[in-house]
Design a protein that fits this description.
CATH topology: Growth Hormone, Chain: A
Distance between the termini: 26 Å
Helix content: over 70%
Order of helices and strands: HHHHHHHHHHHHHHHHHHH
Number of helices: 19
């Protein structure tokens, strides 16, 4: 229970900060004169670095345990936020917000935290535990987003980022409460040859490939909304306070949705639940983009999208552990998550490019609908029943669903 609480707190701070960075687009743009595409590229780079770093920190977490990874990456996270203040439009955005924050999120985000929780919970309650941690992982957004907007309005974006950096540093003492052992006693040591074998087995698994490709659309949609929704609302005449409130609504509804999804996964096929989430998200995006934007439609959109936001994480975690066990969970989650972050890179950057070129976000909204429908078809067709017995222990994962 303690690890679930601690993991949820770390994940909540990590994701709350990350999901609120879109609030800084307009003030940094006005102060530094950077374009929307330049800011979008920095956060797109963050997603790319996050994705590329995730398998690396996953391997390290499997081998050395979560505690050193969490502590070191929390320090890197805070350093990136501080560099955004003093590094200028190129170094501050690309190296600070892009590279350093991306590495920080990789180490303090889902892969390492969910790996630690997965190994501490018996198989029958594992999906529910992951759902609770994922749910808690969005609660801080409800406070961090409005806090950031208030600080930007009354003290300036530099002060807001300094406070964000202090919150990132708060993950360091919390991380000392996470166990230092890399695995439970039943699991074999992660050698280089075993890690390579696990990766190759996953890349030969058709279901793993289909799931990972569908995960691309998830990143594409969510990162566009995180980065560009506040600016889009401003274009439509909706106040910045509503934009910050919408991010908070996403956070609280994500907590509810993640918990509900995990409960459903205990009774229903996780791959079909995952496909339905992609479909419902896409339909919600299409409806929101097709009608005039108002405060009510914005908050309703945020509520529905929030409910569907990160419920995918416990489902994907369950599919990976069922097929491959827990010994290489962090590594394989990192491989799948890389495609999610490639989608996030595309959604963040191309959203800014479409706005700079066309003066609107219409092309970006249409693109999100197309990739979302493709994700639904891919995920629904996934063959998840094949299991890799040489990589897992029966006591770790239970029978395939």
């Amino acid at each position: 229970m303690l690890l679930i609480i601690v993991g949820g707190a770390i994940l909540s701070i990590c994701m709350g900060l990350r999901q609120s960075l879109g609030l800084f687009l307009q003030p940094i743009r006005a102060d530094m004169g950077v374009s929307a595409s330049a800011f979008g590229f920095a956060l797109a780079l963050q997603n790319l670095v996050w994705g590329l770093a995730q398998p690396v920190v996953g391997v390290a977490g499997d081998r050395y345990g979560p505690r050193p990874i969490l502590i070191s990456c929390a320090l890197i996270y805070a350093s990136g936020l501080l560099l955004m203040i003093w590094g200028g439009p190129v170094t501050g955005l690309n190296l600070g917000a892009g590279v350093l924050v991306g590495i920080g999120i990789a180490g303090c985000g889902f892969g390492v935290v969910l790996g630690a929780v997965s190994r501490s919970v018996p198989a029958p309650g594992r999906v529910q535990a992951l759902g609770v941690v994922s749910a808690a992982g969005s609660l801080a957004t409800l406070a961090i987003a409005p806090l950031g907007q208030s600080l930007i309005d009354h003290a300036g974006w530099q002060v807001a980022l300094a406070v964000y950096a202090a919150l990132a540093l708060a993950m360091v003492p919390i991380s000392f409460l996470v166990g230092g052992k890399p695995t439970v006693d039943k699991l074999p040591v992660a050698t280089a040859s075993r890690t390579t074998s696990a990766i190759l087995a996953a890349l030969r698994h058709p279901g793993f490939i289909a799931m990972s490709l569908a995960f691309f659309a998830c990143g594409f949609q969510l990162q566009f909304i995180t980065v560009h929704l506040p600016t889009y609302l401003g274009i439509c005449g909706v106040s910045t306070e509503v934009g910050a409130l919408a991010l908070g609504v996403i956070g609280i509804m994500n907590a509810i949705g993640s918990f509900v999804t995990a409960r459903l996964a205990a009774r229903h096929n996780p791959k079909e639940l995952l496909a339905l989430i992609y479909l419902l998200r896409t339909l919600t995006i299409a409806v929101f983009a097709a009608f005039p934007v108002s405060t009510f439609s914005t908050l309703a959109f945020a509520g529905v999208m929030g409910f569907l936001w990160l419920g995918v994480v416990p489902l994907i975690s369950a599919l990976i552990s069922n097929a491959f066990g827990l010994r290489h969970f962090n590594t394989l989650f990192g491989i799948a998550f890389l495609t999610h972050q490639l989608g996030g890179f595309a959604g963040s950057w191309l959203g800014g490019v479409s706005y700079d070129v066309t003066g609107s976000y219409r092309v970006a909204w249409a693109s999100m609908v197309i990739v979302g429908l493709l994700a639904f078809l891919l995920q629904w067709s996934m063959n998840h029943s094949d299991r890799e017995p040489d990589l897992t222990l029966q006591s770790d994962a239970g029978p395939p669903r």
